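Person: Show me a sequence?

Helper:
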Amino acid sequence: MGNTVVKLTPCLAGHDADDNAPQSMTLSQMPTISGIPDSFDQEGIAQTISFKRDDSDDPNSVPFQTIHCVSLGANQIAPSSIMNDYSFSSSSSFDRSSSFSSFALHPSSSSFSSSDPSYSGILVRSDSTTILREMQAARDRRIQEKLENPTLGHRLINSITSRFKKYTGGLVCGSHTGTVHQGTSDEGKSDPGAVHWAQGRAGEDRVKMVYSEEHQLLFVGIYDGFNGPDAPDFLLANLYEAILLEIEGIQWEKQDHQQVLAAMSRALRQADEEYLSMAAENPELAMIGSCVLVMLMKGEDLYLMNVGDSRAVLAQKAEPDLSGVLGKADEDLERFKVEMMRQLEAYERDKLSGLVAVQLTMDHSTAVYQEVRRIRSEHLDDPCPVTRGRVKGTLKVTRAFGAGFLKQPKWNKLLLEAYKVDYIGNSPYINCNPYLRHHKLGPRDRFLILSSDGLYDHFKNDEVVAQVEMFTSMHPEADPAHHLAELILRRAATKAKKDVNDLIGLPQGERRKYHDDVSIVIISLDGKIWKSSPCLDEINNQEALLNC
């Protein structure tokens, strides 16, 4: 994200956000891990990963059809100072259970080739020969890593399974021997108790996805780091498990949504406190932070939490326009009913036309006037708490995980003189208080886009929804996240007046001048069979009104 610490400058009139600045829209038991980690440390400009639910699953209990994710790196990676055991060995890579599929994306001008016409040809997937070669290279690296550190290869599984044990008080695996099950049963169908997972990175972005089939619980976390990888690495390793512990004992059937959101908020606050406590021995951690976007999906209920400027955007079908039909209600009741049925059936058949973008999260940045006003009101003794569009001249985000140097004077004092800010008073300049939201999925909801802010540096919400809508209608089996990654590169190249192939050819770090790290997760909701038909509901409502 665009939050690298910059040299502090005097507070100048006219640089702060003005009054007209626009405001952004606002587990009981989980017995098995589906497969062992298959690390894909492939060298490529980006990585894609996807998950498709088993066709044999009960569609009434599965809240989504597919998950598509892409990670496009731009920042040069510096080694993590505290989270080395959780680090990846390349700038863009994924670890995953075998139920997720993964591909490296390479520039089309390289030796890699693809015959898939769904994409523009900027980025192509590795061919089968390359995939096998990369798999063997990744396997060799893992063997070497295990020789050097025997615990590294199983750290992720051990972390997940140990949390499940604490959470459930029972066995993680169905087997008495405690071995990890593969993701399929003897009949070849998906194990109903499987837990599928994947995690990856792009530059300083981190993403994590975990799905429990038995409990129909999906977790997605996107962590957009700044000033270093330590904060997002810490979140990747700890926040999901912390949330699991906090939601222990929640009775989901009672539909106490505030209880779930409060548990998520507590987990984030505790993780933030634990991370900052390490800054006493590692002062550099006081500068490093991350935006946070977390989603839990339980049946038809979405629970969202964010700090910073990552977003969750829902593609929702607009309400049907029945104004022309309703005006004829007094002419002929039977004819009215037939016309109403025809209009609503046509509306229902047209799955994608007329989608609107609904932002389910709130941006916390200096571009949001309310956030700037809040900081100023909390620092009346500071003449310039926000200068040149940044909090104390350093960060664009107004809320974040970590970044203790803007939360307490003691963390600011630990930094080298060149990186200290003029901290006035004791009140925090930024905080980690999240925006929380519950959304009940309905028949008009089509897909959900979760992304770090690198996507919205180039597109508005409605543009993203329109692009995914158009692409999926033309290529229903292709990967819309891959498509968005190509569009970002094209937009970045156009803005810089460069050839897109020249841009792609730049090394990581150099390319950061033109686009940010980007992590995008697109969740298709088309697999949901709703309990009631919107057509029948609308017709029944209109008949009731006419009979009054």
The chain has twelve helices and 19 strands. The chain has a mean pLDDT of 76. The longest helix spans residues 128-148.
